[in-house]
């Protein structure tokens, strides 16, 4: 895997699986990103204009709230609509519904690390 210059871009990763959060935090930090992780989708409702992430990685199926609902909300708000959202799931058949919700990309779990890093870099260039 190649290291990418990221100019210390901030990524927000939302998943209810702590192992995945730890994995993504470590992987993306090694790529040079500032990585914020959370299991709480409420964080997305409280994003402040001066602290918006450069990209959001969001699980489709979250405890208590569907990631597609969160995506629709973020894409409907002027402050957050331009933030790229990459959604992920172990269920590849949700790809069409993810795109319909407004996600910018979809990646299947288990992650191919190179594909994930490449997709992120694509949206942050």
TrEMBL record:
UniProt keywords, alphabetically: Phosphoprotein
Pfam families referenced in this protein's UniProt entry, alphabetically: Response_reg
Modified residues (4-aspartylphosphate): 59
Signal peptide interval: none
UniProt-listed InterPro entries: Bact_response_regulator, CheY-like_superfamily, Sig_transdc_resp-reg_receiver
Ranges for domain Response regulatory: 10-124
Keyword field contains Hydrolase: no
Name of this protein: Response regulatory domain-containing protein
């Amino acid at each position: 895997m190649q290291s990418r210059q990221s100019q210390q871009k901030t990524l927000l990763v939302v998943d209810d699986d702590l192992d995945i959060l730890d994995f993504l935090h470590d992987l993306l930090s090694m790529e040079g990103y500032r990585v914020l992780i959370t299991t709480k989708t409420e964080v997305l409702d409280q994003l402040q204009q001066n602290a918006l992430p450069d990209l959001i990685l969001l699980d489709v199926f979250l405890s208590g709230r569907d990631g597609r609902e969160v995506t629709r909300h973020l894409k409907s708000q002027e402050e957050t609509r331009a933030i790229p959202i990459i959604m992920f799931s172990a269920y590849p058949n949700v790809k069409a519904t993810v795109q319909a919700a407004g996600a910018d990309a979809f990646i299947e779990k288990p992650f191919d690390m190179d594909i994930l890093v490449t997709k992120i870099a694509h949206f942050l260039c």
